[in-house]
């Protein structure tokens, strides 16, 4: 969320920089300078300790932990109670300490187990979650241009939106408002519920803009209808603002949601796929512009249909609110779909949880030792 706010701040500062530079070469050089400063990233930010531990890179993790202790001015000998309580409980037994040290050295000498994103194809649930979020981000950022063009199109004549700076700051203000609205929505409705809400609003705004405005346009042609062309323009701007608000929130939330349900070992790969899908959705805007807006209406219809598909597919996603981040691919597979609404008091769930399934794991072994025709509870079938 902090990165999203920083990106929105950069969008708000861009017209001011352009006005100060007055030359696109100078502006381009000014934009590139922060990226050159990012080369210092390697010396400022450490490697992810969670990723090092999840991929069994214990030697690098050990160096990083020692680096943290030195920077924090910690004494490992005096502060070892909070780090390794198992050793302090047996500090009087040198054999136990030596055994634990040997086990620790054995773990440190193990080869790293790095996982490629291609292994997601062999999973049962994880690849579906990533595909759904990829389609969701593509649709959210792709349909955003359709709403922006409807609001800033030449056919819409509104005094406030005839200025380029007014158009630009309106779009940036809508993006900032969507980021602010995302914070409380995902807290109260959850990640899946918030994403579903924003996608439903996007679909409604798109369908109303495609269907209702055409109906208003037909009635405005009759002299006795009392509807003018300005009424259609005002409805178009209203639906466009709502659509831009909801589509930007849906696309951004898809990226955040992917970071939470993708396991640590392949989190960068999953985020890369979702961000690439979002970039492809944004790439459709200049493609339509290059063709002089030919096929724009079909472009909007296709993305409107994709929003309906996304609403159905979002129900298959798990809820990650108040859940631990998955570390390995099996942990990500255990993220199963929960009911969208909490169950009522006294109502039995239809699906058992993983903890409840473990309680029945011994029934197969018990049933194997029973005589023929007997059941696990000691009875015989009818």
TrEMBL record:
GO CC annotations, alphabetized? endomembrane system; membrane
Record's keyword annotation contains Membrane: yes
Localization of this protein: Endomembrane system
The Swiss-Prot or TrEMBL record annotates one GO molecular function as: transmembrane transporter activity
Predominant place of localization? membrane
Q: How does it sit in the membrane?
A: Multi-pass membrane protein
What UniProt keywords are attached to this protein's entry? Membrane, Transmembrane, Transmembrane helix
Asked whether the UniProt record includes Acyltransferase among its keywords, one would answer no
Segments passing through the bilayer: 28-45, 129-148, 168-189, 196-217, 237-259, 271-290, 296-317
**What is the name listed in the Swiss-Prot or TrEMBL entry for this protein?**
Solute carrier family 22 member 23 isoform X1
What gene is behind this protein? SLC22A23
């Amino acid at each position: 969320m902090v990165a999203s706010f920083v990106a929105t701040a950069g969008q708000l500062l861009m017209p001011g920089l352009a006005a100060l530079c007055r030359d696109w070469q100078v502006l381009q050089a000014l934009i590139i300078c922060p990226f050159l400063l990012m080369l210092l990233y390697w010396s400022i930010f450490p490697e992810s300790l969670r990723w090092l531990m999840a991929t069994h890179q214990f030697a690098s993790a050990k160096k990083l932990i020692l680096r943290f202790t030195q920077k924090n001015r910690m004494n490992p000998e005096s502060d070892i109670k909070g780090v390794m309580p198992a050793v302090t409980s047996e500090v009087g037994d040198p054999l136990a300490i030596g055994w634990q040290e040997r086990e620790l050295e054995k773990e440190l000498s193990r080869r790293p187990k790095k996982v490629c994103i291609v292994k997601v194809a062999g999973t049962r649930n994880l690849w579906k979650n990533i595909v759904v979020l990829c389609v969701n981000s593509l649709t959210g950022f792709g349909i955003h241009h359709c709403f922006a063009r409807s609001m800033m199109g030449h056919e819409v004549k509104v005094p406030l939106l005839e200025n380029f700076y007014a158009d630009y700051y309106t779009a940036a203000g809508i993006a900032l408002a969507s980021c602010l609205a995302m914070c409380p929505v995902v807290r109260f409705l959850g990640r899946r519920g918030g994403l579903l809400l924003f996608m439903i609003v996007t679909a409604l705004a798109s369908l109303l803009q495609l269907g209702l405005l055409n109906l208003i346009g037909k009635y405005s042609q009759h002299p006795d209808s009392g509807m003018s062309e300005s009424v259609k323009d005002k409805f178009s701007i209203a639906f466009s603002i709502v659509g831009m608000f909801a589509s930007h929130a849906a696309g951004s939330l898809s990226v955040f949601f992917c970071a939470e349900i993708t396991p640590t070992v392949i989190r960068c790969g999953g985020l890369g796929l979702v961000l690439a899908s979002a970039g492809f959705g944004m790439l459709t805007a200049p493609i339509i512009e290059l063709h002089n807006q030919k096929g724009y209406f079909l472009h909007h219809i296709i993305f409107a249909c994709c929003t309906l598909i996304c609403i159905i597919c979002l129900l298959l996603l798990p809820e990650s609110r108040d859940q631990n981040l998955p570390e390995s691919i099996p942990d990500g597979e255990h993220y199963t779909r929960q009911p969208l609404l909490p169950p009522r008091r006294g109502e039995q769930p239809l699906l058992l949880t993983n903890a409840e399934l473990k309680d029945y794991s011994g029934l197969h072994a018990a049933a194997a030792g029973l005589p023929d025709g007997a059941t696990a509870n000691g009875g015989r079938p009818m």
